[in-house]
Amino acid sequence: NVLAELCKRINERGYKVGVIASTGIADPFPFGVTVCKWSSHEQLGNCLYSWLRELDQVGANIIFAQTVEESGLGTAIMNRMRKSAGDKCIFSLDDLEQILQALANNL
What we know:
Elements: H1 2-12, E1 17-22, E2 33-38, H2 41-57, E3 62-65, H3 73-85, H4 96-106
Parallel strand pairs: 1-2, 1-3
């Protein structure tokens, strides 16, 4: 699990990591990583803001959120994610090198 390994490395540097991902991707993660699991777009749409508040309350410095296809409800979900991220970058896990470079520049 590339994301779990990335979270572990970041966590080892003393940063708190949060993950919002579907059930299949969200298992297993290292101790110290807060994971919010969703099983449907409806659940993600209904819980996204409460999960972001939860991650804020636990002091997550970095949040990885699984993206969804931008059609139907997915369009609204991705809009919420982008607004919540503010001016922070959103990357695809397909480009691990880009993620690692961005983290190196910002951590």
